[in-house]
Structure to design on (804 residues):
């Protein structure tokens, strides 16, 4: 990695031009840095004449968080590009196409998706995405099934586990999702108006017991190759297309963590709608859409997952009567528990989400935050008894009674 | 690995002589090959004049089983020596000392333990080992705790998982322990007199459901670095000393698999005593000793494990009220389930144990086998409800009613 250096705009343009078969010879390339600058440089390289464009994403060897600079391995660029390539082989239409991965520069050259919007932004604006549940269900079913012991040769799976050992990025999740929100940690960042609710969480040992179990699963349960950070900010979307990006947190973990991430972020938006839609009837309707989407995500995921199991299982014992039903129930329970953790961390922890954080009025924001904390806690406390996705919807509905 | 070749006796002697500080200059070394010849060459190199001796263990690039030759990675020699060194750092008195690991020759030079006997042989002869439970409890507690997320930095643990990915040897366990005994597989090998009992197992879907769950845990639950093959043939013993050898199956798996292996092999001997002790009073007494040992193994293990947890936990959330008790109960349940699997595979599967296999009278052997199958099935069927080690003892007692 000794020749690594962070690219500037000119170097990014030269790099893009050197890739054969993308831009015409006479392209007039311009570069725009569109990354958030915390972890990666993201150059959008475009040629207005031909209308062609590309993304160059380069990992920085540090992370800028809370004003400090943390060293962070650029090996995550390898993880990300290898995960993208693997996901692409399983569901090519749902991830950006990767042209090149350059291990020296920790650089991935990939398809430009600027015709899509970040789903979180779309949901905040009140847009509905009728194909999203089907698309993400397909993504989850295929990426999780075919990287697990159910759908992948079990010796090859072990080599995949080895390939995707990802200590530094897992550490971020272990601390920021499963530890800091449950104690008075320096990294925490919450609205002072919800101080009482937060302190109750810090002293709720029943809740923390369930979180400890979920954290243990995250640490030890090498079930499938996860995206690892599957929130609505990692999803580019239009009414017709869904693209899952940024799998730098990829590692072998519990499937429910990815499924739960999708559910949690739909429910965070559901809580945030306290502010975004003023008209009550319209707000109720959009929240119904979000809950229907939660249900549809699980429905599409589980139907497709079971279809793949039927078709392509590599495990003789997985056809034993009762095992499939038991497995799916445990997935639902995990998804519910992890969804709860992912909601709470966005309200108390270091990294908030715009659905709630960008609500200007602190009192309305506090109301949205109380809804999210209430739903999150109930999901965590009840997850080990869950037997139907409807229970998540019921919890979400009760969560509005704040 | 291109310079690898299997050593002959003369080369083994030359190699031993080249190691500084072991044998005197004028040593008259002789070599005896004492391996079973299936997987490894094991040279016992000794100098009668000084009384000094050494073991050279070299992995062969194939396995001889059922008359066939299977290619098998010599990387298992690296796994074995690295596991030995790690275990040695945690409980030096309980594993052989490693002098050298030679990666080119897949060769480990280690302490000679010929003053010990293989525990399986000792138990068949009716010997009691009063310190065994304490020793193996210590071994299990230290090796499992300090390689788990409870006792090892959680990022370093991930690198250990990566280091000990062991697909080929895990495959042997996955097939021979968790799959073949439950179907009419070619590798199976059982006494024709128990054909009915075996067929009942092949058609017992409730049993197979539980086995599928245990198999899933073996495949996915990267809880701690296991020995991976901790039967009484992997234990050298005297009345004062216990040495655990042969960790070539080491990998990150569920702790209960190692604990269960010890319990299973004590109970296989318990079943085999049908033949070995003719006098009924003496047989009852020895079986009581074996059951007491099962109880003491769990007692010593759990006490020491909890003491290490108290002293050296690296996980803040592991001190949440209720978590420790819940964790220990799950360990017991896993140990019980895996013990059951390990008993059944020794009766039906490819690799029998001498405790039972070497009983000459096929009818007495069948009785011992029925006892083992009955105990094994009950352990598997009841494991998820277990809350006390006493339940294993009760199952073992009821198992004699064949």
């Amino acid at each position: 990695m000794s020749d690594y250096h962070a690219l500037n705009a000119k170097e990014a343009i030269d790099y893009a031009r050197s890739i054969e078969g993308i831009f015409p010879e006479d392209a007039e390339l311009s570069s725009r840095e569109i990354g958030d600058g915390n972890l990666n440089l993201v150059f959008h390289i475009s040629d207005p004449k031909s209308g062609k464009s590309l993304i160059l994403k380069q990992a920085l060897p540090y992370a800028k968080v809370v004003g400090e600079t943390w060293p962070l391995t650029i090996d995550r660029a390898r993880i990300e590009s290898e995960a993208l390539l693997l996901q692409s082989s399983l569901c090519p239409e749902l991830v950006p196409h990767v042209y090149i991965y350059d291990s020296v520069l920790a650089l991935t050259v990939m398809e430009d998706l600027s015709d899509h919007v970040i789903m979180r932004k779309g949901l905040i604006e009140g847009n509905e995405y009728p194909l999203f549940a089907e698309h993400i269900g397909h993504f989850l079913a295929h990426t999780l099934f075919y990287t697990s012991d159910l759908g992948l040769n079990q010796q090859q799976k072990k080599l995949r586990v080895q390939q995707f050992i990802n200590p530094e990025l897992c550490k971020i999740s272990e601390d920021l999702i499963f530890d800091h929100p449950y104690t008075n940690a320096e990294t925490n960042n919450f609205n002072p108006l919800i101080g009482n609710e937060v302190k109750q969480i810090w002293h709720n040992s029943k809740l923390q017991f369930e979180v400890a179990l979920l954290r243990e699963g995250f640490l030890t349960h090498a079930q499938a190759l996860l995206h690892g950070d599957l929130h609505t900010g990692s999803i580019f979307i239009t009414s017709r297309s869904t693209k899952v990006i940024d799998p730098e947190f990829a590692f072998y973990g519990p499937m429910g963590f990815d499924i739960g991430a999708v559910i949690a972020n739909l429910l965070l938006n559901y809580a945030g709608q306290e502010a975004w839609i003023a008209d009550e009837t319209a707000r109720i309707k959009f929240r119904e859409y979000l809950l229907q989407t939660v249900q549809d995500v699980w429905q599409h995921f589980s139907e497709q997952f079971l279809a793949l199991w039927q078709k392509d299982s590599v495990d003789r014992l997985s056809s034993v009567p009762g095992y499939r039903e038991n497995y799916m129930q445990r997935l639902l329970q995990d998804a519910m528990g992890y969804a709860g953790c992912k909601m709470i961390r966005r309200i108390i922890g270091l990294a908030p989400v715009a659905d709630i954080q960008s609500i200007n009025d602190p009192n309305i924001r506090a109301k949205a935050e109380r809804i999210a904390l209430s739903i999150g806690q109930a999901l965590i406390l009840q997850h080990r008894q869950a037997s139907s996705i409807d229970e998540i919807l019921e919890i979400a509905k009760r969560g509005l009674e704040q």
